[in-house]
Design brief:
Blueprint lengths: L2 E6 L16 H9 L4 E7 L2 H11 L3 E5 L7 H7 L5 E6 L3 H9 L4 E3 L4 H17 L4 H15 L4 E6 L2 E6 L5 E5 L2 E5 L4 E4 L3 H7 L5 E5 L2 E4 L3 E8 L2 E6 L6 E4 L1 H11 L2
Parallel strand pairs: 1-2, 1-3, 3-4, 4-5
Antiparallel strand pairs: 6-7, 8-9, 8-12, 9-10, 11-12, 13-14, 14-15
Length: 261
Protein backbone atom coordinates (compact mmCIF):
# COMPACT_ATOMS: atom_id res chain seq x y z
CA UNK A 1 0.00 0.00 0.00
CA UNK A 2 1.62 3.30 -1.02
CA UNK A 3 2.38 5.87 1.65
CA UNK A 4 0.20 8.99 1.39
CA UNK A 5 2.48 11.73 0.11
CA UNK A 6 2.20 15.49 -0.12
CA UNK A 7 4.84 17.64 -1.75
CA UNK A 8 5.35 21.32 -0.98
CA UNK A 9 8.07 23.28 -2.75
CA UNK A 10 8.02 27.06 -3.16
CA UNK A 11 7.69 28.62 -6.57
CA UNK A 12 10.96 28.41 -8.52
CA UNK A 13 13.27 31.33 -7.75
CA UNK A 14 16.02 32.71 -9.94
CA UNK A 15 18.69 30.96 -7.88
CA UNK A 16 16.87 27.66 -8.20
CA UNK A 17 17.15 27.88 -11.98
CA UNK A 18 20.90 27.40 -11.68
CA UNK A 19 21.97 23.83 -12.52
CA UNK A 20 23.70 23.34 -9.18
CA UNK A 21 20.70 24.42 -7.09
CA UNK A 22 17.75 22.51 -5.68
CA UNK A 23 15.52 20.53 -8.07
CA UNK A 24 12.12 21.94 -8.95
CA UNK A 25 8.87 20.39 -7.85
CA UNK A 26 8.75 18.61 -11.20
CA UNK A 27 12.03 16.87 -10.49
CA UNK A 28 10.91 15.95 -7.00
CA UNK A 29 7.69 14.55 -8.46
CA UNK A 30 9.76 12.38 -10.82
CA UNK A 31 11.54 10.95 -7.77
CA UNK A 32 8.16 10.21 -6.18
CA UNK A 33 6.96 8.41 -9.31
CA UNK A 34 10.24 6.47 -9.29
CA UNK A 35 9.56 5.08 -5.80
CA UNK A 36 6.90 2.37 -5.53
CA UNK A 37 6.26 3.09 -1.86
CA UNK A 38 4.79 6.53 -2.53
CA UNK A 39 1.54 7.86 -3.85
CA UNK A 40 1.45 11.54 -4.82
CA UNK A 41 -1.61 13.24 -3.35
CA UNK A 42 -1.02 16.89 -4.18
CA UNK A 43 1.42 19.80 -4.27
CA UNK A 44 1.36 23.54 -3.61
CA UNK A 45 3.09 26.67 -4.86
CA UNK A 46 2.80 28.76 -1.67
CA UNK A 47 2.55 28.32 2.08
CA UNK A 48 -1.15 29.23 2.45
CA UNK A 49 -2.14 26.74 -0.24
CA UNK A 50 0.07 24.11 1.40
CA UNK A 51 -1.48 24.63 4.84
CA UNK A 52 -5.02 24.33 3.46
CA UNK A 53 -4.23 21.17 1.48
CA UNK A 54 -2.34 19.48 4.31
CA UNK A 55 -5.28 20.02 6.67
CA UNK A 56 -7.82 18.88 4.06
CA UNK A 57 -6.03 15.87 2.55
CA UNK A 58 -4.32 14.63 5.74
CA UNK A 59 -1.28 12.96 4.14
CA UNK A 60 0.99 10.65 6.08
CA UNK A 61 4.13 12.29 4.72
CA UNK A 62 5.08 15.69 3.35
CA UNK A 63 8.24 17.07 1.77
CA UNK A 64 8.85 20.53 3.10
CA UNK A 65 11.49 23.16 2.36
CA UNK A 66 12.93 24.85 5.45
CA UNK A 67 13.63 28.22 3.85
CA UNK A 68 10.63 29.54 1.94
CA UNK A 69 9.85 32.94 0.41
CA UNK A 70 6.60 33.55 2.34
CA UNK A 71 6.56 31.40 5.51
CA UNK A 72 9.30 29.16 6.85
CA UNK A 73 8.86 25.42 7.09
CA UNK A 74 8.75 25.86 10.85
CA UNK A 75 5.88 28.34 10.52
CA UNK A 76 3.90 25.85 8.47
CA UNK A 77 4.41 23.06 11.02
CA UNK A 78 3.25 25.34 13.81
CA UNK A 79 -0.08 26.21 12.21
CA UNK A 80 -1.21 23.01 10.46
CA UNK A 81 -3.86 21.05 12.37
CA UNK A 82 -3.07 17.71 10.73
CA UNK A 83 0.35 16.49 11.85
CA UNK A 84 2.05 14.36 9.17
CA UNK A 85 5.53 12.93 9.10
CA UNK A 86 7.99 15.38 7.50
CA UNK A 87 11.09 15.07 5.34
CA UNK A 88 12.86 18.40 5.08
CA UNK A 89 14.55 19.53 1.90
CA UNK A 90 17.25 21.99 2.82
CA UNK A 91 20.43 23.81 1.95
CA UNK A 92 21.28 24.15 5.66
CA UNK A 93 24.92 24.21 6.68
CA UNK A 94 26.62 21.00 7.76
CA UNK A 95 26.33 21.78 11.48
CA UNK A 96 22.56 21.96 11.28
CA UNK A 97 22.38 18.83 9.16
CA UNK A 98 24.35 16.86 11.74
CA UNK A 99 21.91 18.06 14.35
CA UNK A 100 19.01 16.85 12.22
CA UNK A 101 20.61 13.42 12.12
CA UNK A 102 21.22 13.33 15.86
CA UNK A 103 17.58 14.23 16.46
CA UNK A 104 16.32 11.49 14.11
CA UNK A 105 14.82 14.02 11.66
CA UNK A 106 15.03 13.11 7.99
CA UNK A 107 16.27 15.59 5.41
CA UNK A 108 17.40 15.82 1.82
CA UNK A 109 20.31 18.13 1.15
CA UNK A 110 19.92 20.07 -2.09
CA UNK A 111 20.67 19.08 -4.76
CA UNK A 112 19.75 15.43 -4.13
CA UNK A 113 19.50 12.39 -6.38
CA UNK A 114 16.96 9.59 -6.80
CA UNK A 115 19.24 7.39 -4.69
CA UNK A 116 19.32 9.97 -1.88
CA UNK A 117 15.56 10.28 -2.13
CA UNK A 118 14.97 6.52 -1.91
CA UNK A 119 17.26 6.20 1.11
CA UNK A 120 15.30 8.94 2.91
CA UNK A 121 12.03 7.16 2.15
CA UNK A 122 13.39 3.89 3.57
CA UNK A 123 14.23 5.70 6.80
CA UNK A 124 10.80 7.29 6.92
CA UNK A 125 9.05 3.92 6.51
CA UNK A 126 10.99 2.56 9.47
CA UNK A 127 10.10 5.55 11.62
CA UNK A 128 6.45 5.51 10.59
CA UNK A 129 6.17 2.10 12.23
CA UNK A 130 7.57 3.44 15.52
CA UNK A 131 6.57 7.09 15.64
CA UNK A 132 3.93 8.21 13.13
CA UNK A 133 3.87 11.74 14.51
CA UNK A 134 7.20 13.48 15.14
CA UNK A 135 6.14 17.01 14.19
CA UNK A 136 6.32 18.30 17.78
CA UNK A 137 9.91 17.10 18.10
CA UNK A 138 10.76 18.66 14.74
CA UNK A 139 9.24 22.01 15.70
CA UNK A 140 11.13 22.05 19.00
CA UNK A 141 14.40 21.17 17.32
CA UNK A 142 13.99 23.75 14.56
CA UNK A 143 13.21 26.41 17.14
CA UNK A 144 16.40 25.54 19.02
CA UNK A 145 18.36 25.54 15.75
CA UNK A 146 16.96 28.97 14.93
CA UNK A 147 17.99 30.29 18.35
CA UNK A 148 21.50 28.84 18.01
CA UNK A 149 21.95 30.27 14.56
CA UNK A 150 20.94 33.69 15.94
CA UNK A 151 23.58 33.72 18.69
CA UNK A 152 26.02 36.60 18.59
CA UNK A 153 29.65 35.64 17.96
CA UNK A 154 30.92 39.06 16.79
CA UNK A 155 29.75 42.58 17.57
CA UNK A 156 30.55 45.71 15.53
CA UNK A 157 31.68 48.85 17.36
CA UNK A 158 32.09 52.17 15.54
CA UNK A 159 34.85 54.54 16.64
CA UNK A 160 34.96 57.63 14.44
CA UNK A 161 34.99 56.35 10.85
CA UNK A 162 36.39 52.95 11.83
CA UNK A 163 34.39 49.80 12.51
CA UNK A 164 35.96 47.44 15.05
CA UNK A 165 34.78 43.81 15.10
CA UNK A 166 34.72 42.46 18.64
CA UNK A 167 34.84 38.72 19.25
CA UNK A 168 32.18 38.01 21.85
CA UNK A 169 34.40 35.47 23.61
CA UNK A 170 36.92 38.25 24.35
CA UNK A 171 34.41 40.56 26.06
CA UNK A 172 34.60 40.50 29.86
CA UNK A 173 31.31 42.24 30.49
CA UNK A 174 28.67 44.60 29.10
CA UNK A 175 27.69 47.66 31.12
CA UNK A 176 24.80 50.03 30.53
CA UNK A 177 24.97 53.66 31.67
CA UNK A 178 22.48 56.38 30.71
CA UNK A 179 21.05 54.06 28.02
CA UNK A 180 24.48 53.60 26.43
CA UNK A 181 25.94 50.06 26.41
CA UNK A 182 29.69 49.50 26.71
CA UNK A 183 31.53 46.29 25.84
CA UNK A 184 34.54 45.94 28.15
CA UNK A 185 37.58 43.97 27.01
CA UNK A 186 40.78 43.36 28.96
CA UNK A 187 42.51 46.50 27.71
CA UNK A 188 39.76 48.69 26.28
CA UNK A 189 36.03 49.30 26.00
CA UNK A 190 33.69 50.20 23.15
CA UNK A 191 30.20 51.63 22.72
CA UNK A 192 27.97 49.13 20.94
CA UNK A 193 24.56 49.46 19.32
CA UNK A 194 22.77 46.78 21.35
CA UNK A 195 20.55 47.01 24.41
CA UNK A 196 21.16 44.69 27.34
CA UNK A 197 17.82 43.00 26.66
CA UNK A 198 18.93 42.23 23.09
CA UNK A 199 22.27 40.93 24.37
CA UNK A 200 20.57 38.76 26.97
CA UNK A 201 18.46 37.13 24.26
CA UNK A 202 21.27 36.63 21.74
CA UNK A 203 24.27 35.72 23.88
CA UNK A 204 25.14 32.15 24.82
CA UNK A 205 23.45 31.65 28.18
CA UNK A 206 26.05 29.11 29.23
CA UNK A 207 28.74 31.77 28.95
CA UNK A 208 27.03 35.08 29.71
CA UNK A 209 24.90 35.93 32.73
CA UNK A 210 23.01 39.08 33.65
CA UNK A 211 24.14 39.84 37.19
CA UNK A 212 22.41 43.22 37.45
CA UNK A 213 19.89 45.20 35.43
CA UNK A 214 22.86 47.19 34.10
CA UNK A 215 25.44 44.41 33.71
CA UNK A 216 25.98 41.18 31.77
CA UNK A 217 29.17 39.28 32.55
CA UNK A 218 31.23 36.67 30.71
CA UNK A 219 31.50 33.84 33.26
CA UNK A 220 34.77 32.66 31.70
CA UNK A 221 36.48 35.74 33.20
CA UNK A 222 35.18 35.45 36.76
CA UNK A 223 37.89 35.01 39.39
CA UNK A 224 35.95 35.06 42.68
CA UNK A 225 32.56 35.92 44.15
CA UNK A 226 32.16 37.19 47.72
CA UNK A 227 29.29 38.47 49.90
CA UNK A 228 28.70 42.22 49.76
CA UNK A 229 25.83 42.56 52.23
CA UNK A 230 22.06 42.60 51.99
CA UNK A 231 21.98 39.45 49.92
CA UNK A 232 24.17 40.96 47.21
CA UNK A 233 27.64 39.84 46.09
CA UNK A 234 30.76 41.24 44.49
CA UNK A 235 32.22 39.54 41.45
CA UNK A 236 35.97 39.92 40.81
CA UNK A 237 37.21 39.48 37.25
CA UNK A 238 40.46 38.21 35.74
CA UNK A 239 41.69 41.46 34.20
CA UNK A 240 44.61 43.79 34.92
CA UNK A 241 42.29 46.29 36.62
CA UNK A 242 40.80 43.54 38.83
CA UNK A 243 37.32 44.79 37.97
CA UNK A 244 34.59 44.39 40.58
CA UNK A 245 30.94 44.02 39.58
CA UNK A 246 27.96 43.97 41.89
CA UNK A 247 25.49 41.09 41.73
CA UNK A 248 21.90 42.00 42.64
CA UNK A 249 19.92 39.95 45.17
CA UNK A 250 17.70 38.38 42.51
CA UNK A 251 20.63 37.59 40.23
CA UNK A 252 22.57 36.20 43.21
CA UNK A 253 19.91 33.55 43.80
CA UNK A 254 19.88 32.63 40.12
CA UNK A 255 23.64 32.43 39.72
CA UNK A 256 23.95 30.32 42.86
CA UNK A 257 21.57 27.82 41.30
CA UNK A 258 23.39 28.03 37.97
CA UNK A 259 26.88 27.53 39.39
CA UNK A 260 25.78 25.27 42.24
CA UNK A 261 27.40 26.80 45.28
Amino acid sequence: MPTGFYCYFPAITLTERRKDEAPSRERLKSFVFGNNSLDLIDEAENAIDAIDKINALKPQLIFLDIQLPDLSGLDILKVIKHKPFVVFTTAYDQYALNAFQNNAIDFLLKPFSQENFNMAIDKVKEKLQLAPNMVSEMVNFLEQARIKSNLLTRIPAKVGEKIFILNVRDILYFKSKDKVVFAHLKNDYYIINYTLDELRRRLNKEQFFRIHRSTIVNLDFVRTIEPFGGGTYLMHLKDKDKSQLQISRIAAREIREKLGW
